[in-house]
Amino acid sequence: MAKDRFVEVYTQGVNNVEKIIVDTQTGVNYVLASSALTTGCGMSVLVDADGKPIVTPMS
Fold it and tell me: Where are the domains of the chain?
């Protein structure tokens, strides 16, 4: 069975939802936000205070 490329590691909210998704091949973290009020969503690379991508070490 193939390993999923993206995994959800954090979620909060019910109507306005924020999730952190990790790319299991690169370790790069993404933030996904969606709003039931606007029925839209957006996804972006999650960055640290210096603007560098947050990378989770993958073993």
Answer: 6-44
